[in-house]
Amino acid sequence: MRAAIYARVSTANCGQDPGMQTRELEEYCHRRNWGIAGTYVDRGVSGAQASRPALNRLMADAGQRRFDAVLVWKFDRFARSVSHLLRALEIFRSLDIEFVSLSEQVDTSTPTGKMVFTVLGAVAELERSLIVERVKAGMRNARAKGKRIGRPPRTFLSPGMREAVALAYRRREGSLRVLASRFHTSVGTVQRCIRAYQTGAPESLPPISS
């Protein structure tokens, strides 16, 4: 087995040393007779960041199957959230790469580790479902209070104003953007005014030529 070691410290030059993490992980590899294919260390990088230089290199090397297992000292050294961890574990599983967290004693190469992975996935799915339900409940509550949900309504223009827009376009008084600015509306509304009078212009307004 070839193992990749990942470690992270939030602040550099402030007494935090990733050596403690990597040392314990290296000892774990030696106990299991695993070779160390590479050590990836992010220094002075917050765990809230999903994109980190060393972690990005690790994930790229994983895609090239340069190792068979990923070792971390603790979940929070590797992932910024449960969902982030699960996405990485899904990638590792598709590549037949095991994941080991030393502090939590989780090893996906063991039956217990696989069970923990399944539980984490179920918890994440429940979390997503709860979020969706909360959003739907909020929308229902807003509608019940008479609030509008979704995109704002289109710019309102009176029939006379819409006819004026179409006439201005017919007389070539400006581009769509110029007319939108002149009538204090959007380009899309100007286009709808033009289409309305081109497809069914009243007798008082000859059809507009494009």
Give a brief description:
With 210 residues, this protein is of the alpha/beta class. It has helices at residues 19-31, 53-63, 75-78, 82-94, 111-144, 159-170, 176-182, 187-200; strands at residues 2-9, 35-43, 69-72, 98-101, 106-107.
Q: What can you tell me about this protein's structure?
A:
The structure is a single chain. By secondary structure, this protein is of the alpha/beta class. The protein has 2 domains: 2-110, Resolvase, N-terminal catalytic domain (Rossmann fold), CATH 3.40.50.1390; 159-200. Helix content is 51%, strand content 13%. The protein has a 5-stranded mixed β-sheet, sandwiched between helices. The longest helix is centred in the middle third of the chain and has 34 residues, at 111-144. The termini are far apart.
Query: How would you name the CATH homologous superfamily of the largest domain?
Result: Resolvase, N-terminal catalytic domain
* Tally of strands: 5
Q: Which structural category do the helix and sheet elements fall into?
A: alpha/beta
Strand content: 5-15%
Mean pLDDT: 82
Whole-number count of domains:
2
- The helix content is 40-55%
> How far is the N terminus from the C terminus?
70 Å
**Strands across the major sheet, in which order?**
2-1-3-4-5
- CATH class designation of the largest domain: Alpha Beta
**Number of helical stretches of at least 4 residues:** 8
How would you sum up the global shape? elongated
- Fill in the CATH topology of the largest domain: Rossmann fold
- Rounded to an integer in angstroms, the radius of gyration calculated over CA atoms is 30 Å
Poorly predicted sequence stretches spanning 5 or more consecutive residues: 202-210
